């Protein structure tokens, strides 16, 4: 599989709608990766229309709330990332609360189409996330993956698997529960002459 990854922009909005509209995408279709962006609740079916509208407003305003992976032009994956302060709920999370006061970008969600799982899409998204964060001036990128012995159900890996963060050069900086480390990668800005 040759995966291409692009920022979610206004012209790519129909692709995320298609991806989240597929069978097996009920949770993304309801949440629209807005759960951690707001305080309070709001990932259920009753909030789906509001969440979609809020995500669309972010994109329409020129924000890039995440990246989309494509296989042969077909959207197959999604990663939500941005400056930590964009995710209000992280400040109160017992697992994902700040490790320190350094400015950091956060990766809060992965979604891969069920037909594309196990083919390197999450790793391609993570590599692209590092590049994207770097291009936006980030110097630290943080994720909150799942770390369980054996293979986890794909449906429960919204935060990604620790092993892909390990392979991408992230280091564990905190662990507040047995299965949820906080992983961080220092991003060096490229120097162009």
Provide the succession of SSEs.
Answer: EHHHEEEHEHEE
Question: How many DSSP helices?
Answer: 5
Choose one word for the global shape.
globular
Give the percentage of residues in beta strands: 15-25%
Number of strands: 7
Number of domains: 1
Q: Taking all residues together, what is the mean pLDDT?
A: 90
* CATH class (first level) name: Alpha Beta
Query: How far apart lie the N and C ends?
Result: 34 Å
Which regions are unreliable across 5 or more consecutive residues at pLDDT < 50? none
Q: What is the helix fraction of residues, given as a range?
A: 10-25%
CATH superfamily: Gcn5-related N-acetyltransferase (GNAT)
User: If classified by CATH, what would the architecture be?
Assistant: 3-Layer(aba) Sandwich
Please give the radius of gyration in angstroms: 16 Å
Question: What fold name goes in the CATH topology slot?
Answer: Aminopeptidase
Largest sheet: 7 strands, mixed
* Widest sheet: strand ordering: 1-2-3-4-5-7-6
Structural class: alpha+beta
Features of the shown structure:
7-stranded mixed beta sheet; globular; 193 residues; 7 strands; alpha+beta; Aminopeptidase
Commentary on this structure:
With 193 residues, this protein is of the alpha+beta class. It has one domain: 3-Layer(aba) Sandwich (Aminopeptidase). Helices cover 25% and strands 24% of the residues. It has a seven-stranded mixed beta sheet with strand order 1-2-3-4-5-7-6, sandwiched between helices. The chain is globular, with a radius of gyration of 16 Å. The relative contact order is 0.15.
